[in-house]
Amino acid sequence: MLLDQMGSYDLDVGIGNEVSQTLRDLSLTPFQVVENYVRLVHPWLPIIKSPRLTTQLETTQRDQPLTLKAETAALLLFIHLATQSSSNERAHNSDLQRKVYKQCQSMFTLLQAFRRSALETRQCGVLLTTYQLGAGFISDAYVTLSTASGLVHVHQPCPFARESYKDERDDEARRVWWAVFLLDRLIAQSHWKKRSYPLIIEQPPWWSELPSEGSLTAAPIRITDIGTCHCEYFCREIQAAYLAAQTLEYRSDHDRKEGFEPDLSKLSTQLTTLLNVLFETAPGSWRPSCGAIAMIIAATLDLHLSVSGLSTNNTPAQLAYPMETLATTIRINTEIVTNSLDDNDDNEFQDRLPITGVIANYRTALAICHRAEVNQALTTEERFQLVTMTRALQRGRLRWGLADVYLQEISGMLDVW
Question: Taking the CB of residue 27, how many other CB atoms lie within 10 A of it?
Fold first, then answer.
């Protein structure tokens, strides 16, 4: 609709009118949209400085329709979409929500064409990717993120002094780069059977500020409000993404060369070390919502499944990987999930569960079943663990449609065992 009318209207007015009407249909104010972002998305994807956006809204709050730039008005709609449940079974996943999704797709196309350099265009791409990944639209998410990563590559902030983070928009631009890196790894982790090669992003001028192998016990990313726990955990998610990327590289290497075992041992040790650090850092109430913990759990289980699939007739390769590490990882995730399931507040569970948690729970179920196949039996503990992961995915679909996809894949596991 927007593209058909481009010749007859001003982009700012057109998108402003459309966003204003949609928010009225949703009975939402722009300020409520921002509040929902702070509550549901910012804890694990802090790509927008909400005070800056709120200030912009305050200067135009008496204007109807919104007198914002097209990219800022559109950002409100993308924020709303990213905060919504993507489950097909939720009552509010209505025709109106599908309409919002289509509007966001059209607006992103317009912003790419006419506002390519705007920071908000990149933020919109990240938020659209988040919704698509959560809904289980993996191919669509990959295409959207590919576009966003291209914009990030072209419109990088200028190099800066390590001690200077005075420009808030530059700080947000760096967060968007980190978010692309994080979502790229999540997309690759989201489906074991599909080989999703990580997007290649040129190292930015501030590459030295990103985590390295030697920084597993520190968070070297310099963000202006690093003292807040949300951003601290975001830094940890980026660290986890680095190790997840190494696991993905390990998976894709079909030619087992000399030195394979030491590499496996080193990667396993790094994963275990960061997981221990995260447990020491995150209080118990935070663990279900800490995406970094979930990503490390998923990466550890991915590593196990990779090795297990490389067995020979003479020497099962899974024996090379410490079975205690696998068992410990499964127990850790079972403990986290069990504690969260004990909370009967479905709304709170929905708010706290990151998409990474859904992926980790699915991987845990696969690892349990694989171990049962190897042993030709399912122990009482493993049966409890498998039931727990299934329950977690059933509750996870309150927020994420991807959980529905995973439930269909593992629906027969309990029947078999």
Answer: 7
